[in-house]
């Protein structure tokens, strides 16, 4: 009985951790730079509150972040970082997705999309991401 209880507790803890995982909302340029230069692959979604395609794509981005804990997913507000991160990245429209690893952008894609299309991009990114 004790073993079953411990196994169930461990399973519930794992599920809670997975449910809590999700994208990081970028709050500063320094925070972004640390994530961008880290050893962990990163997918950044540049978005805006006024953007219709962003609103429809964002739930898929959040769900996929929970499915891929080996990748850092982050959300960057276009309006908040327009003169810094957005300008430096050359973002001209939202949503835009930037796929990077160890301080290098490996690919990017602009436009709203469904979960299958976004999943396909993430799978392709993982395949070409250099192994540590």
Describe the model.
With 132 residues, this protein is α/β, with parallel strands linked by helices. The chain has a single domain (22-128), classed as Glutaredoxin (3-Layer(aba) Sandwich). It is built from five helices and five strands, in the order αβαβαβαββα. The protein has helices spanning 2-20, 29-37, 52-67, 82-89, 115-128, and strands spanning 24-25, 42-47, 72-77, 96-101, 104-110. It has a five-stranded mixed beta sheet with strand order 1-3-2-4-5, with helices on both faces. The chain starts with a helix and ends with a helix. Residues 5-19 have low confidence and may be disordered.
- Helix coverage percent: 40-55%
- Contiguous uncertain segments of 5+ residues: 5-19
SSE-based structural type: alpha/beta
Average pLDDT for all residues? 88
CATH class: Alpha Beta
Q: In the CATH classification, which architecture applies?
A: 3-Layer(aba) Sandwich
Computed over alpha carbons, the radius of gyration is 16 Å
Number of domains: 1
The succession of helices and strands, N to C, reads: HEHEHEHEEH
What oligomeric state do these chains adopt?
A: single chain
- Tally of alpha and pi helices: 5
Largest sheet: 5 strands, mixed
The total strand number stands at 5
What is the overall silhouette? globular
CATH topology: Glutaredoxin
